[in-house]
Every structure is written in structure tokens, then in C-alpha cells.
Amino acid sequence: MSPSAQADPRVAPAAATSRDVPWTVLEGDCRERLAQLKPASVDAVVTDPPYGIGFQGERWDGQAIREAAIRRTNGLLSAGEAFEAWAREWARDCLRVLRPGAHLTAFGAPRTAHRLACALEDAGFELRDTLLWLYGTGMPKSRRLPGGRATSLKPAYEPILLARKPLDGTIEQNLKAHRTGALNADACRVDERFPANVVLTHHVGCAEGRCRRGCPARLIDSAAERTRARSRSAQPASRLFYCPKVSRRERNAGCEGLPRRKLDLFPNAGGATAPAAAAANPHPTVKPLEVMRWLVRLVSPPAGLVLDPFCGSGSTGAAAALEGCRFLGVELEPDYASIARARIAHWSGRRGNESDACPFARQT
Asked: What is the per-residue pLDDT for 158?
């Protein structure tokens, strides 16, 4: 099936994916699209929703959320209350379409993740854990004040909430009836160690076998090596999953035929970074494929149907394709939907031969 056929927005969402059509990206509001899905038809949700922090002044991450929440509640809400009310609504839609025991993972921002957690619980999910994606290479957003003072700290991590739809009976009964309810721990082991709830990102300037100064992976390993030397332990230095931040090569792969647009990841840096460049994929919050693959592998049964109601530029879909899963994405912005289709089509053809997806990833 060609990407253009898979991209047809007229495809009925209830039958959007199959063995012959392994992935589909639909345009539109996720609440309207999810309402068309059959109940208990999705095996996992892996998503990176808006954080409600007005990221880079983007309307979709601030004012649009507040307006949508106020329309549905007919009340005056603070920004935090509006974000929580908005998240609760889409979380309820996800709960309805997930199979019993199916998991949901959702990225969040440190200052609004508590609102997202409450929204998931109020929607009916069980909170199972909070994973930490540590990267240490964020750009300070603080105002610089006299005397070396500032208004905020440099971001260095993002929480990933792990939630589960209530089970249908015991865990054994649920697994037998629905193939959901448990995490695929063995498939996500790191150096034969049980997977942890921390993921580390290499510095963007790291190369294979050589980390830049200040790289979180290098710092963790160095500390672990010192501890191991003192204790004379034969255990590996660390037990965490490592992955670099997304490269321009990975960001744009598959989008070569699309128009190039302005990409400015640090609009408020005040000249501290290089000028904005043009990119075929200008989405400001692209997640690394290896991180998304690890999450898909963790929560989806083999060849399961993975849903991302905030598809963005398609990282979850590309990860699902590389992991042999089916994928259904929903994206409000037509330009991003086109980028997502191009990227998913690209990586779908590289399953089993995708070494260039994340060349410096390592599990040590």
C-alpha cells in the first residue's frame, strides 16, 4: 500500500490498519477521530502530547488548549486547570479504545506532569510509574537578571507517565484474553539487566565510542566506574538505556521531497546559538527513534496496534514500524501529518536494516 493510499483521510478509522495496511495517519482533532474507533480495539498508546506550557509561544501548546477546555467546561479556568481538563478528555477517549490492561505512555513537562497524572487517574487509568528521560543538554529559558540571578533552571529531563487501563480479571486472565496487562521486560533489558525507569540521552555531539564533556551518559558511567573500582565489583558500570538526541539526519530522513521550512529550536536564546536553519521536518519537539522504539517495545504486544493521538512528525509511527507493530496516528496540523507519513514510509522500508536510525545508541 502506497503512502498516499494510507494517508487518505477518508479511510474509516475503525478499520484503519490491518496486515495489508500496517499504518495510517489521519488528520483532524483526536477527540473526533477517536470517537470513530471501536471500543477495546487498540493495544497500546505511546504519545507525546502538548505540555500546556506555551512552548516557544506556540498556540497549540497554550491558548488553544485553554480555549478547548473552557468550551467543554463552560467555566473560567486557570492555565493549569484548563490543561488538566483538556488532558482528561483525550485520556478518556484513549481509555475507551484501549483493550483491558493496555498501557499508555505520555511524555510531559516537569511543571505540568502532575496535572497530566491527575487527568489520567480521573479518566480511569491506573498510574504505574513515572519514567525519567534525562538528557542534560537543554537550553536555559531563564531571564538573565543583575547579580547573576535567574528566573528558572536549565531543563535536563522530561517525565514519561506510564499508566494502565484496569485489568479484566487477574493479570493471567487478562493476558490470555487480550495479550495486554504486562510490560515486555525481557525485550527491554539493558546488558541483560532488568529495565529501569530511567532513560539517558547522549549529548548531541557524541560519536560512537567517544562522548563529549558534559554528556549525561558519560557522567553516569564515570561515577559508576569509580564505584565499581572501589567495590572491586565485576558488574557492568551501568544498567541504563542510552540514546542520543535526535540528529538532523534522523529528523529529516524520508522528507527529502517535502518543502523546507524554518527550524529554530531556541528562539529565545538571544544569539547564543547558530541562526535558525531550514529543514524538511521543522517540528520543534521531535523525539529520538530509539527512545520511542524502547517505549513501543515495552508496552505493546508483538504486532500490536499502537495509537498516537498527537502524531506530530511521526516518531511513534516510525518506531512502531521498526518494531513490527501496526500504527494509527492522528494529527491536527496537515503539514505535520504529511511529514509523519513521509517519515513512517521511510522507516517502514528499513525494518531489519535500520542501523542508521540511531548509530550511537548503546545498551551497556
From this structure: 92
Give me the CATH code for the 21-141+151-357 domain, please. 3.40.50.150
List, for residues 103-155, the tens digit of each pLDDT value: 999 999 999 999 999 999 999 999 999 999 988 767 777 788 999 999 988 88
**Cα separation, 77 vs 179, whole angstroms:** 40
Report which DSSP code applies to 207.
Answer: B
Task: Flag residues of the chain having pLDDT under 50.
Answer: 1-12, 14-15, 227-228, 231, 233-236, 268-271, 355-364
Question: Who's near 100: CB < 8 A, 6+ residues apart?
Answer: 40, 165, 166, 167, 168, 174, 177, 178, 180, 181
3-class SS of residue 268: coil
What is the enclosing helix (H) or strand (E) of 68? helix 63-73
CA-CA distance, 359 to 246, in Å (whole number)? 11
CA 160/CA 317 separation, integer angstroms: 18
CA distances from 272 to 28, 135, 139, 147, 240 (A): 37, 19, 10, 20, 32
> What is the pLDDT, as a whole number, of residue 264?
60
Angstrom CA distances, 306 to 42, 103, 125, 193, 303, stand at 7, 10, 17, 26, 9
C-alpha to C-alpha distance for 320 and 363, rounded to whole angstroms? 20
User: What are the residues whose beta carbons fall under 8 Å from the beta carbon of 96, sequence distance 6 or more?
Assistant: 34, 37, 39
In the chain, domain spans: 21-141+151-357
